[in-house]
Design a protein that fits this description.
The chain is 41% helix and 18% strand. The chain is an alpha+beta fold and 66 residues long. A two-stranded antiparallel ribbon has the order 1-2.
């Protein structure tokens, strides 16, 4: 339970820092926003980059969540 609370507090601190610094909201690492003309709505399209990073074991673009 202590570990769960520690991780949750770390997430809260990260969110607060984004809000204070005025950074843009969370940006996905493996998807990109685009407009779907067929539905006339915003969608998230998979970039296929995850599997390349996994193969190389390159997690440098991931946030420190632990």
């Amino acid at each position: 339970n202590q570990e769960k609370l520690r991780l949750e507090e770390k997430q809260r601190q990260t969110r607060r820092a984004r809000e204070i610094d005025g950074h843009d909201p969370y940006k996905s690492k493996w998807f990109k926003k685009s407009h779907d003309a067929f539905t006339d709505s915003e969608i998230h399209s998979y970039t296929n980059e995850y599997w390349e990073c996994k193969q190389k074991q390159d997690w440098s673009r991931c946030d420190d969540i632990y």
